[in-house]
Design a protein that fits this description.
The complex is a heterotetramer of chains A (92), B (983), C (416) and D (185). With 92 residues, chain A is an alpha+beta fold. Chain A is built from two helices and six strands. The two termini of chain A are 18 Å apart. Chain B has six domains: 112 residues, 2Fe-2S iron-sulphur cluster binding domain, sarcosine oxidase, alpha subunit, N-terminal domain (Ubiquitin-like (UB roll), Roll); 187 residues, FAD/NAD(P)-binding domain, CATH 3.50.50; 66 residues, Arc Repressor Mutant, subunit A; 154 residues, Probable tRNA modification gtpase trme, domain 1 (Gyrase A, domain 2, 2-Layer Sandwich); 89 residues, 2-Layer Sandwich (Alpha-Beta Plaits), CATH 3.30.70; 99 residues, Aminomethyltransferase beta-barrel domains (Elongation Factor Tu (Ef-tu), domain 3, Beta Barrel). Chain B is built from 22 helices and 52 strands. In chain B, the strands form 13 sheets. In chain B, strands 9, 10, 11, 12, 13, 14, 28 and 29 form an eight-stranded mixed β-sheet that branches. Chain B starts with a strand and ends in a 14-residue tail after the last strand. Chain D has two domains: 97 residues, 2-Layer Sandwich (Gyrase A, domain 2); 64 residues, Alpha-Beta Plaits (2-Layer Sandwich). In chain D, the strands form two sheets. A seven-stranded mixed β-sheet of chain D has the order 1-11-2-7-10-9-8. A four-stranded antiparallel β-sheet of chain D has the order 4-5-3-6, with helices on one face. Chain D has four helices and eleven strands. Classes of the chains: A alpha+beta (92), B alpha+beta (983), C alpha/beta (416), D alpha+beta (185). The interface between A and C is medium-sized, with 30 and 28 residues.
Chain lengths: 92, 983, 416, 185
């Protein structure tokens, strides 16, 4: 993962083409959700040693936001999907 | 020391002579020599001095793990410290110098440390130099630093070129010894894409320095056949002089290729090249490192590894001495002895601690069984050795010693990604897993003995690795008879009198390891850190296993229970140059040029870096002596006449889509959905945490098409943010983005006469009714010849327009405007004047939008929509800390005495307060000299500042020793009611 | 055994055979007043100050690996207190003051070397930001000076002044900043704590946190259950993992930060320099190696190893700053796991769980904080009140909207 | 004032000639392509549909290649009039938006026997499976660019106008060891 990333749209590309944002698990709350929900969304993280879903942006490629499912200890990638399709009924 | 060149033999070109100097002495060698072999051939014994005790050191190995023979190559800017003489191909005119010695390697004053060695035991410096405290930095530390270190680096810029390249292959083979050649040939014949890398300047590995018979052929013939076939296969790329240095995630390998000795004459090739090799599968055939034996004086010049002796003898026809002694625990010593005798050199004896030494020894040299060398006799070289055979001590004459304590598989690369080496009692070595995902260890690196065994093992493992890829390959070499392995562990010789070294370069002795263990630093990692064993430039390749064995013995456990320290990149030291490649100097980062760069140059601009861009900063005219004179003129001219400024670097994003308006409503904290076509609006974008992210003007060009501008700094960030929101948060919205920053040359035409100038080239009516403030339209210029976009927006507070034209026409249009504006007194103005104009108006930039301010802090509280349902940042805006009363608020500041100047970054203090952090009221974010007002002005963020206009403060700048009286005021110094916008 | 030149001399005369262990290897007791999880710099310092200053000596430090095997043994050894915000500045200055007296305090030479830290600037905006920062430092009595280009050139003439892509305009200099021999910090604190009765238990991994009625009562470990009055977590890098044992989620992500050392060189650079136009900083160890690094890799990781692309980036920035580096060599790289917090600043606070105390979120700046972190954490544990310099490091500051965000980059840990 | 504004190509200033290794045939040739037409098309569609629309408005000589997810780059040597661009937008309307980038992107042709080696110095794509007619957004060194394989050994690199000179310089540097033939417009 840290060297090459198999982009679902572009194929395998160097990590330098991508930017990473962080945990893809939190779901953005509704505006009127309790303040604690927003706090959790913005600040609290499982930060697991192991399987983790993460937002990566293929900045120098297709410019899509991707959800990379990978292991934070071994760096092995389990799956990689387009974030939009994941949101619209896909995985993650 | 009596190393010398044999009259015959070797793979050197004796018809050509190369001259080189070592420590100023002129010497000669031949093509095919390394610097190390040439030094030996010239009888040089002492090549350098050790790190701590300044002991004389010679040449230990013939490879990249050499810990002793480190020299400085070259002179001046091209000098290169800490270069292993064993890896340098000799070239004509080569200059080499010894290191860490004064006045010379042969006589070194620092050697006095050796006499003090009882007091310089492991970690001694942690226990002293503490009193009196100030003396540490003044006296002790400078002395230690001066004494420490190896070579001396030049401080001049490196004159050479470096490059990088990607490469892709089915199979990467690391090491072109027998296992690697077998693997490469197997894969090559199958048609797979193969890359074979080897750190030597020619392939062959162990085949290059051995005699006898391998697979029915002489090693030389076999090697020629193998290489010949490989070179004819189009699907194989052989990279010699290339060391694989790192194994990274996803089977990416870093490898460094060195230029050959002739690179200076070829000129255009890089000195070194970093290869980033993407391999579907890899075979690690890196061989094994021969281990030194640990006995008294084992570091003396003239004590070498047997493999090195064989290599120098076979490849360069150089002998280590005329009467070498062999001290070995395994067959390697006997092989070396045989080669020496074959070359006509009398071997004084073979000392073997085993009770049953090699049965097949047929040579002349006497074998001393069940015996060890306890000590070397001789001061700066070898004159003999003390033997201990079952408790009986005797002396034997010798002028050099070849030693072998066994072989340590080179598994470093295979363990760089977290896998722990496992101790093998059978091999008396740590082994890596034979196969990890994408990497297979083969040959001696996997503990396989013998050249035939390696040929076969490489072939077999290449075939199975290719099978993983679905490729069918037949092993190039069939099964070899397995050698019956006899290993023998001798981690150190007991009862030595002299110092017995474990880590040569760092001068770590057996006693140091035992002391570390006694003091509680017995864990292998702690022992390393406490004694520095394994931290030298060979990273423990020569000494670590002995250190582990010694610790194990001391603690009564097996080496496996001690374990290894962690293997990390790099396998061998790698230059900054290779890793940096061509990204250096002016090319460190790419340059971004505005489409109006040429126009600005013509007008005399001074440029300044702004991110990757070069922006025109000001436009000095003849007679102007300081930048301020130019900037003042430009500012005044904009306020009184008209100016033209390049604003092309602002980020520009086309926002398309049926839902573009809805989308922008959720992106900006103020409303955009109802913005009419043909109008622009200033927008503020928040981060989800409620603080301001960026600002800019966005115009609606069609129902489903907006044109967004961002700040220069955040152009890329904002686009990513928009894409995140569109793709991740609201993928159901129909909205698309195209960056058009580079499509448009954009210029601000500002000043009371701006309309008159523009009217000369635009095809539309610019009357205030037809083109009011915040109008934004696609128009044409020059009677329909050119499409453009015109916006009536103002950063300066004057009547102003921003005109965007297709970039290729930018310079021409700017020229036309300057010509049209000449009668109106138009001037070019730069980013500095733009800054003054905006500070005079209290307009904010990233000086104020610094990531910690809210919209309300900057006085935009009313812009934050309370009617929109949701937008980025809305929820978190409600937090207590973002609405508290003492938040910083944007104010203006001015000096009470108009002659006083002040700097951005000054803090704001109350006049009577103690100047302590608790009393800090805020700080000045931006300053400018206002030519309009005739004094300095500033913007500041001050606690509760909006209620403090008129308050006297101290503008406090201890760094500049400037403490002036100032007054807080409204953040607008010119035309607070915005009359000039319409003037 | 007290260390001194005399002890070295006397021991040297007798073959260095009588040195005694620097610390014991005790068996864990069933109960301690305070159990500290994490035998790194912060955990050991906390134990040391608990015993030495706050009179709490029935303390155990549990370390899953060897002593100092976490970030205290894998950093770039820099100390400084050039902080901007009032939440940070006094704390780091306390730390620097403690560094200044550390060796005499714990009778171990950690080679605190105040050779100066210089942050270069390359634009007006950076200069203004450093002016603001330097003045904030001066307001708290911290040493800071703004150097112009010529002053920097006089100090470090071999930086690239003439052919640089981003010319050096000057720098913010803190003369009292510098470096410390990092491993020695762990050893010194361990020895000092051990001699005051603290049990330092290596190779003892905490596998669970036991709670009774919501109150923490002890930890399950690889060496059995250990009861405690108070449990203190000092496991930066792995804070989320240990906190999760108590059901806590933290405002932290773990990231890998690589660092590097070059081959040994004779004295080359005599201060710490940071390159404001690229992620790069460098100093030289007393042993002669250049110690340098750059930015974090940017993705969540517990792997203690990073990517080649980041290494290349560091080399590029290094050569851009010091063109002569080009011919020198990287010897070794390593990776530490950083607790990257949501605002780039740490947490020293009680948790919502009774008897559970948290020291976390050090980002890549934990080493320099070691003494003050230990001191303030010990203060919090012993007195159940924050030390005055660490009051801002609250766990609830994110929820309440009081981030301590030196860079102003918001709640995205990998940007800090 | 000019009667009609003149167009200044981004690479107008580059010097033609032989660079790097002096002897033998040049390993690579660099050519600044005419600043004709570059259009970015975005939307839920496919390359074939975009190509069809491009042909339908008379831009048959243009290449249409992938430039990201649901993004295509339409490129050709001849500029298109606003009328043609409008009809292209019309032809794609409803699904695909078009953004004229004719001035925003600059194309450089890299050809010659060593073109792939020069490309490999900056670009991590494995070109072995990058067939003629394929296009992709990627990085060359630090520079984002679009690579289009026009012929077996001919690649078109399309880069942001502001970076055009920077990319040109990098390519010259990378080609030095093989010998570069630089051709200006």
């Amino acid at each position: 993962m840290a060297s090459l990333i198999p982009c679902p749209h572009c194929g395998t590309r160097p990590r330098e083409e991508f930017a990473v944002k962080g945990d893809a698990a939190p779901i953005r709350p509704e505006l009127d959700a309790p303040a604690s929900d927003w706090h959790e969304y913005l600040h609290l993280r499982d930060n697991p040693k192991g399987r983790h879903h993460e937002f990566w942006h293929h900045v120098s490629g297709c410019r899509r936001w991707l959800i990379v499912e990978r292991d934070t200890a071994s760096h092995e990638i389990y799956s990689i999907t387009d974030a939009a399709s994941a949101k619209q009924g896909g995985g993650a | 020391m009596t190393g010398f060149r044999l009259p015959r033999g070797g793979c050197i070109d004796r018809s050509r002579t190369l001259r080189f100097t070592f420590d100023g002495r002129v010497m000669v060698g031949h093509p095919g020599d390394t610097l190390a072999s040439a030094l030996l051939a010239n009888g040089v014994g002492i090549v350098g001095r050790s790190f701590k005790y300044h002991r004389p050191r010679g040449i230990l190995t013939a490879g990249s793990s050499e810990p002793n023979a480190l020299v400085t190559l070259g002179e001046g800017a091209s000098s290169e410290p800490n270069t292993r003489a064993t890896m340098v191909e000799l070239s004509d005119g080569l200059i080499a110098r010894s290191q860490n010695c004064w006045p010379s390697a042969a006589f070194d004053v620092g050697a006095i440390n050796g006499l003090l060695s009882p007091f310089l035991s492991a970690g001694f410096y942690y226990k002293t130099f503490m009193w009196p405290a100030p003396l540490w930095e003044k006296l002790y530390e400078p002395l230690i630093r001066k004494a420490a270190g190896l070579g001396r680096a030049s401080k001049a810029p490196d004159p050479d070129r470096y490059e990088k390249s990607w490469a892709h292959c089915d199979l990467l083979v690391i090491g072109a010894g027998p296992a690697g050649l077998g693997a490469a040939l197997t894969a090559g014949r199958s048609g797979a894409r193969v890359i074979l890398v080897d750190e030597d300047h020619e392939p062959g590995g162990a085949l290059l320095s051995t005699g006898g018979d391998v697979a029915g052929r002489s090693p030389t013939t076999l090697l020629a056949d193998l290489v010949g076939e490989l070179e004819n296969l189009p699907n194989i790329r052989i990279l010699s002089r290339t060391t694989a240095v790192g194994w990274y995630d996803d089977n990416l390998f870093g490898a460094v290729e060195r230029a050959g000795p002739d690179f200076l004459s070829t000129g255009h090739a890089p000195r070194e090249r970093l290869w980033r090799i993407v391999a579907r599968e890899a075979i690690l055939a890196s061989g094994a490192e021969e281990r030194p034996l640990v006995f008294g004086g084992n570091d003396r010049p003239g004590v070498m590894m047997t493999g090195a002796v064989s290599s120098y003898l076979h490849r360069q026809a150089v002998a280590p001495g005329r009467r070498p002694l062999i001290f070995t625990t395994n067959a390697a010593g006997y092989h070396a002895a045989a080669m020496l005798e074959e070359a006509g050199i009398e071997v004084s004896g073979i000392v073997d601690p085993r009770t049953e030494p090699e049965a097949e020894w047929r040579g002349r040299a006497p074998v001393f069984r069940n015996a060890v060398v306890t000590d070397v006799i001789g001061g700066r070289g070898v004159s003999g050795a003390v033997l201990d055979s079952e408790g009986r001590r005797s002396r034997i004459d010798a002028d050099s010693i070849a030693m072998s304590g066994g072989f340590t598989p080179r598994i470093q690369l295979a363990c760089q990604r977290g896998c722990k080496p496992v101790w093998s009692e059978a091999h008396l070595a740590f082994l890596a897993p034979e196969r990890q995902n994408g990497l297979t260890v083969a040959g001696a690196a996997a503990g396989i003995e013998g050249l035939e065994g390696a040929l076969h093992d490489g072939s077999r493992k290449a075939a199975s690795a290719l099978k993983e890829l679905g490729l069918d390959a037949k092993p190039a070499f069939s099964a070899a008879p397995l050698n019956d392995r006899k290993t023998y562990a001798l981690w150190r010789v007991a009862g030595t009198r002299g110092a017995a070294f474990v880590d040569f370069q760092n001068d770590v002795k057996v006693d140091d390891l035992l002391l570390a263990n006694r003091e509680g630093y017995g864990h292998v990692e702690l022992a390393k850190r406490y004694t520095t064993a394994g931290m030298a430039t060979d990273q423990g390749k020569t000494g670590n296993l002995n250190a582990i064995g010694i610790l194990a013995e001391a603690r009564g456990v097996t080496p496996g229970e001690i374990g290894t320290t962690t293997f990390r990149p790099f396998y061998v030291p790698v230059s900054f140059g290779a890793l940096a490649g061509s990204a250096r100097g002016k090319h460190f980062q790419p340059v971004r040029r505005s489409p109006l760069h040429g126009w600005a140059e013509k007008n005399g601009a001074v440029f300044v870096e702004s991110g990757l861009w070069y922006r025109s900063s000001w436009f000095p005219r003849p007679g102007e002596m300081t930048w301020r004179e130019s900037v003042d003129r430009e500012v005044l001219n904009v306020r009184s006449n008209v100016g033209l400024c390049d604003v092309s670097t602002l980020g520009k994003i086309e926002v398309f889509g049926r839902d573009a308006a809805t989308f922008l409503d959720r992106i900006y904290c103020n409303a955009f959905a109802k913005l009419p076509v043909g109008r622009a609006r200033y927008g503020i974008m928040l981060r989800e945490d409620g603080f301001i992210y960026d600002d800019g003007t966005t115009s609606r060009l069609a129902d489903d098409h907006f044109f967004m501008t961002t700040t220069t700094a955040l152009a890329a960030g904002v686009l990513s943010h928009l894409e995140f929101c569109a793709q991740v948060l609201w993928p159901d919205l129909d909205v698309r983005f195209a960056s058009s920053t580079d499509q448009w040359a954009q210029m601000a035409i500002a000043g009371p006469k701006s309309r008159s100038v523009l009217e000369a080239i635009v095809d539309v009516d610019l009357s205030d009714d037809a083109f009011p403030f915040m109008a934004a339209r696609e128009i044409t210029l020059f009677g329909g010849k050119l499409s453009a976009r015109l916006f009536r927006i103002s950063f300066s507070g004057e009547r102003a327009y921003e005109l965007a034209v297709p970039a290729g026409f930018g310079e021409s249009v700017a020229d036309a405007l300057m010509a049209a504006g000449a009668p109106y007194g138009i001037c070019a103005y730069g980013a500095e004047a733009l800054g003054v104009l905006r500070i005079e108006k209290g307009h904010v930039t990233h000086n104020e939008i610094n990531g910690t301010v809210t919209a309300d802090d900057l006085g935009f509280g009313k812009m934050v929509s309370s009617t929109k349902t949701d937008f980025i940042g809305r929820a978190m805006l409600r937090r207590e800390g973002l609405v508290s009363q003492d938040r910083p608020q944007l104010v203006g500041v001015r000096p009470v005495d108009p002659r006083d100047g002040f700097k951005a970054g000054s803090h704001i203090m109350r006049p009577d307060d103690q100047t302590v952090l608790e009393n800090d009221q805020g700080y000045v974010t931006s300053v400018a000299f206002s030519p309009h007002l005739g004094h300095m002005i500033g913007l500041a963020l001050v606690k509760g500042g909006r209620t403090r206009h008129g308050e006297r403060v101290v503008i406090w700048n201890a760094l500049g020793e400037s403490y002036i009286e100032g007054e807080v005021c409204a953040p607008c110094f010119v035309d607070p009611v915005n009359e000039r916008l319409h003037a | 055994m007290r260390y001194s030149a005399l002890s070295i001399f006397l021991q040297g005369l007798t073959g260095n055979r009588r040195w005694t262990p620097a610390f014991r290897a005790p068996e864990p007791k069933p109960y301690y007043d305070v159990v500290i999880v994490g035998g790194g710099g912060h955990g050991l310092a906390t134990a040391y100050y608990l015993a030495r200053v706050f009179g709490v000596a029935n303390v155990a430090v549990l370390e899953k690996g060897y002593l100092g095997s976490g970030n205290v043994g894998r950093n770039t050894t820099i100390i400084r207190s050039n902080y901007l915000l009032p939440g940070n500045n006094p704390f780091y200055e306390l730390s620097l003051k403690l560094w200044e007296g550390l060796e005499q305090d714990f009778n171990f030479n950690a080679m605190v070397s105040q050779r100066g830290v210089l942050n270069l600037y390359h634009s007006d905006a950076q200069r203004d930001a450093y002016t603001r920062r330097g003045n904030a430092m001066r307001l708290h009595g911290v040493d800071a000076e703004l150097l112009d280009r010529e002053a920097v050139r006089a100090k470090l003439p071999f930086l690239d002044f003439d052919n640089a892509r981003f010319p050096i305009m000057g720098g913010l200099h803190q003369p009292r900043g510098g470096t410390v021999r990092h491993d020695a910090v762990a050893w010194g604190y361990a020895r000092g704590a051990d001699s005051r009765g603290v049990d330092i238990i290596q190779h003892c991994e905490v596998t669970g946190i036991r709670r009774e009625n919501g109150v923490v009562t002890g930890v399950e470990t690889s060496r059995g259950f250990i009861g405690c009055g108070k449990l203190a977590l000092a496991t930066a890098g792995h804070s989320s993992v240990t906190a999760a044992m108590a059901g806590l989620r933290l405002p932290i992500e773990s990231h890998v930060l690589q660092a590097f050392v070059s081959e040994g060189l004779k004295p080359f650079i005599d201060c710490v320099v940071t390159f404001g136009a690229g992620h790069f900083y460098v100093s030289q160890s007393d042993k002669g190696g250049l110690v340098f690094g750059g930015d974090i890799d940017g993705y969540n990781s517990y792997a203690q190893r990073g990517a080649l692309s980041l290494v290349e980036h560091v080399a590029e920035a290094g050569v851009a700053l010091i063109p002569a580096l080009s011919r020198l060599r990287f010897l070794r790289s390593w990776g530490g796991i950083m607790d990257m917090s949501m605002d780039g600043s740490p947490i020293i606070d009680r948790t919502p769980i009774e008897n559970l105390y948290l020291n976390a979120g050090w980002c890549y700046g934990g080493f320099k904080a070691t003494p003050a972190s230990g001191y303030c954490f010990a203060h919090l544990i012993a007195r159940d009140a924050s030390h005055e310099t660490a009051r801002a490091f609250r766990l609830d500051r994110f929820e309440r909207g009081y981030p301590i965000d030196e860079k102003g980059l918001g709640a995205q840990p990998n940007l800090h | 004032m000019p009667e009609s504004p003149c167009h200044i190509p981004a690479l107008a200033g580059v010097r033609p000639g032989r660079l790097g290794k002096e002897d033998g045939a040049p390993g690579v040739t660099l050519r600044a392509l005419p600043e004709g037409l570059v259009v970015l098309a975005l939307g839920r569609s496919d390359r074939k549909a975009v190509l069809a629309a491009t042909v339908s408005v008379g831009l048959a000589k243009c290449s249409v290649s992938d430039a990201g997810f649901e993004q295509w780059l339409i490129a050709g040597d001849m500029p298109a009039s606003p009328v043609v661009l409008a009809s292209l937008a019309q032809a794609l309307a409803g699904k695909v938006y078009v953004s004229d980038q004719s001035h925003g992107r600059v194309r450089i042709a890299l050809s010659g026997p060593r073109s792939m080696n020069v490309l490999a110095k900056g670009c991590g794509i494995d070109f072995a499976s990058f067939t003629v007619g394929t296009g992709a957004m990627t990085l060359y060194g630090h520079l984002g660019c679009h690579v289009f394989r026009a012929e077996e050994t001919v690649f078109h690199l399309t880069v942001l106008r502001s970076f055009a000179l920077a990319l040109w310089d990098e390519l010259v540097e990378a080609g030095r060891e093989f010998g570069v033939e630089a051709r200006a417009l």
